[in-house]
Amino acid sequence: MKRASDPIFWALFGAGGMLAALVGPVLIFITGLAVPFGFILPQQTMSYGNMLALAQNPIGKLAILAVISLFLFHGCHRLFHCFHDVGIRSPAAGKFVFFGFATTVTVITAVLLLAIGF
Amino acid sequence: MSRFKPDLKTYTRPIPAGWWWQTPFLLRYMLREWSSLFVVAYALVLLSGVYSLSQGEASYDAWRGVIASPPLVVFHLIALLVLVYHSYTWFKVMPKTTPHIPIDPKVITYGGIAVVAFISVAAVAIVYWVMS
Amino acid sequence: MPFDPTTRTIEIECLRFNPETDTEPHLQTYKVPFHDDMSVLQGLQYIKDNLDGSLTFRWSCRMAICGSCGMMVNGVPQLSCHTFLRDYFPAKVSVAPLDHFPIIRDMAIDQSDFLNKLESVKPYIIPKHDKPIEDGAYRQTPKQMDQYYQYSQCINCLLCYAACPQYGLNPTFTGPAALALLHRYNADSRDVGWTARSELTNSDDGVWHCTLVGYCSEVCPKEVDPAHAINQNKVNSTMDYFGLLKLLMPKGATE
Description:
The complex is a heterotrimer of chains A (118), B (132) and C (255).
Chain A: H1 6-34, H2 48-56, H3 58-85, H4 91-116
Helix pairs in contact in A: 1-3, 2-3, 3-4
Chain B: H1 24-34, H2 36-54, H3 57-67, H4 70-93, H5 105-131
Helix pairs in contact in B: 2-3, 2-4, 4-5
Chain C: E1 8-16, E2 26-34, H1 40-51, E3 70-73, E4 76-79, E5 93-96, E6 103-105, E7 108-109, H2 112-120, H3 142-146, H4 159-163, H5 165-169, H6 176-186, H7 194-201, H8 215-219, H9 226-241, H10 245-248
Parallel strand pairs in C: 1-5
Antiparallel strand pairs in C: 1-2, 3-4, 3-5, 6-7
């Protein structure tokens, strides 16, 4: 019986799901609804200067990478199973497409964050 | 072949394509699972922000303009509702993933939701304080 | 059985299939007089005794402990002895054999796949050492027993298999009841069989086929909570994958 490769992806799914559950709503509120309209928080919050400083900070980089990457791994794992549930399934191809996408996005994010410098 | 298999010819019913919307419980399961679409979508929106940031101030300011546009506002409103549903369902199923401990599942669920509420309020408060 | 004039009548629609004459199932509706204390099973028994002796269904204890009378009642997996006609009246009650199993005849399903799955989980104590009778009984604290007791309550009624869409989509999945039983033995302090069972547990047909739909635990008449049994083992399986299982298991729990 073949050993499932799921544990690694499941662990990433779990980490991403927990992160999304804890900070997802407030991040969406701040970045997508409050700051763009100066509601509660000033529009200045996400000024170019502030965001550049955040992205140039090593901890800021890690935070941004963690959010984007883990959200992707969470979503891709779940969507892979969603497609299986509605009848679209091909285990090998599916894993390659979904986790390949998540990995690609992670790499792109890391490269961009490094390009932004310190 | 199983030694338990009966000799009679049996009839196999294929699972219907609509298996998930015919029962409320299973429909809620599907909604919970597909909520991950918005988790991915929001992460990609953040990625677009990181990209625009990397291309300089003009590109970043253009991105800010797009974020404030009506379609993106609608997206963020929907995403907020969906991610709140994600948080709720995440902590609702969490008791099923813990070891067998003598804690009421409701404690885990409501505790988790309370933590989310606390983090959300604290995050806004901290950003507000830092910006003032 | 005498019925007084205040008896009401309910329609019970049954899925019929006779392997000797039918190529496909069809529906047949019966008008059944009932009292408020009558279960769906008693409704079927009335049909068989008075209206149509060919109606075929399994039953035994009439009190939700034998696990024989599982059926789909209005699309929900139920024990027919545990479901009451009064709760559906005046609407029609639809009775069909349990989903996700082949039909032998009418409500009787082919359980052979489940019996195979039961065998595959090694549902017996695998002790560290052979313990002769002279050495006396195993000793177990209430806390140790609590770790597995609820998972030992399964009556093999198969409602959870009818509920589980993953089993419905792919019957190679070991399934809720069998995996709950697997956990029942792994969690027993007298057992060291995690490794012996791990090839199945860690495989694609073991715990990893489950997507925590949770409907199995919802329909279980004995509150076994198979969803919990399976999903707490995803952590164990992951730790096993990284060779870290000893960190989680109590000392001597696995070899």
